[in-house]
Design goal:
Elements: H1 12-20, E1 30-33, E2 36-39, H2 45-62, E3 67-70, E4 86-89, E5 106-113, H3 117-122, H4 124-130, E6 135-140, E7 145-154, E8 160-168, E9 173-175, E10 183-185
Parallel strand pairs: 5-6
Antiparallel strand pairs: 1-2, 3-4, 4-5, 6-7, 7-8, 9-10
């Protein structure tokens, strides 16, 4: 007779305490998704290059309008604390010293995806939509395109997603969802292979 296996879920407070106690080795990266500790995928060179390019360009575009955070936690309901590649968030008085940004603080969440593409679509889309994150972007390095998701919704079966998905190619530009709509030139973001 097989015994039933139960999964141990963690609250954000328990997760923070584990971090404080040094439970995770320095090189082990995990994020809290719906109470479960999920290992984060290792990054390849294309991911790292795209991340570096975004850091340079987004820093310039959001300066004085919002805060840019890179691979830092955001606090969502239902026991989730993902660490997206980028989040553009409001500028609070305490610079998020008292708590991580929550959905009301977030203008845009960005993930860079190669080996994590299915995870960023299948897990992160419903997660961010349920939290009512209005703008979610995936830099899809497999197809070399930007996937822009907007208009979160919930269907009659309690599934969450986005009503709108737009595709932008590397020779196009896209507006950031910020005051004055700064424009990001995608040719400066996607990694280019040398001839």
């Amino acid at each position: 007779m097989l015994s039933q296996v139960t999964t141990r879920r963690f609250t954000p407070e328990e997760y923070h305490r584990l971090i404080e106690l040094g439970f995770f080795p320095e090189n082990e990266r995990v994020e809290l998704i719906r109470g479960e500790l999920i290992p984060m995928v290792a990054k390849g060179t294309a991911h790292t290059t795209c991340c570096r390019n975004l850091l340079r360009e987004l820093s310039r575009l959001v300066f004085g309008k919002a805060e840019l955070q890179c691979q830092d936690p955001i606090q969502l309901p239902f026991g989730s604390e993902p660490e997206p590649d980028f989040a553009i968030v409001r500028s609070p008085g305490d610079n998020y010293l008292s708590a991580h940004p929550t959905p009301k603080d977030i203008f845009l969440v960005i993930e860079i995806a190669d080996s994590s593409l299915n995870y960023d679509r299948d897990v992160k889309i419903p997660l961010y939509a349920e939290a009512e994150i209005n703008h979610y972007w995936i830099f899809n390095l497999i197809l070399n395109q930007l996937e822009v998701y907007t208009e979160p919704f919930q269907d009659e079966q309690n599934n969450f997603g986005y009503r709108s998905k737009r595709i932008f190619l590397p020779n196009q530009s896209v507006e950031l969802p910020l005051e004055s709509s700064p424009v990001l030139e995608l040719k400066s973001i996607f990694p280019r292979k040398l001839a």
